[in-house]
Amino acid sequence: MNGIYGTETITLPVGLLTALATSDLRMAVYGLRALYGVVRFLHLIGMAGFIGMVVILDLRGLGLFPAASLDPIRARLALVLRAAFWLTIATGIALFLYDPLGIGLHSMFLPKLLLVVLGYLHARVVQRHPAIRAVAARRRAAAFASLAVWLLVVGASTWNHVERPVKITAALRASTVGKE
């Protein structure tokens, strides 16, 4: 079933995706179709808030505007950033459980997950090591890396959203798992 999108990229294991797709939890989530739109909307709001905060903070880290200009609202920005990140993660999990095969077989889904983990770990390292932020060149490099990773996450998400199956029979088989 790998490669239904015309690429032979590494995806999450089909056996795992099939087990999730046929699980009682997935069937319960799939039965909540009325909430799907709300969850998707919240996911997009979370992503927009998170990426917006990342861009603001990373542009400051790159030196595009003075660090002191954000001082009065820095704590609030960090709160919005964390809330938006965890909203995006929670709703992303819910969307994945709604259609594990449809989402998990996209060619950029696994790379996107790996980039999210990389971005999260990068943020934790930068946060825990003040020496990174203390030197301008290190701070700029960290901000550039952060911006690059999170924009790649958005790119992978976009790719997954517009990607259409080219191997139709494999896609149809994948879409009917658990619906018999």
Describe the structure concisely for a colleague.
With 180 residues, this protein is mostly helical.
Instruction: Name the assembly state.
Output: single chain
Instruction: Specify the structural class.
Output: mainly alpha
Name the beta content range: under 5%
Query: Radius of gyration, Cα only, in angstroms?
Result: 19 Å
The amount of helix comes to over 70%
Overall average residue pLDDT: 87
Question: What is the overall silhouette?
Answer: elongated
User: What's the number of helices?
Assistant: 9
* Poorly predicted parts: none
- Structural domain tally: 1
- What can be said about the biggest beta sheet? none
**Distance between the terminal alpha carbons, to the nearest Å?**
18 Å
SSE succession: HHHHHHHHH
The beta-strand count equals 0
Keywords: Membrane, Transmembrane, Transmembrane helix
Transmembrane segments: 34-57, 77-97, 103-121, 141-159
Give a verbal description of the structure.
The protein has one domain. It has 9 helices and no strands. It has helices at 14-21, 24-30, 33-61, 74-98, 100-104, 109-128, 130-134, 136-162, 168-176. Helix 3 packs antiparallel against helix 4, helix 3 packs antiparallel against helix 8 and helix 6 runs antiparallel to helix 8 (136-162). It is elongated, with a radius of gyration of 19 Å. The chain crosses the membrane at residues 34-57, 77-97, 103-121, 141-159.
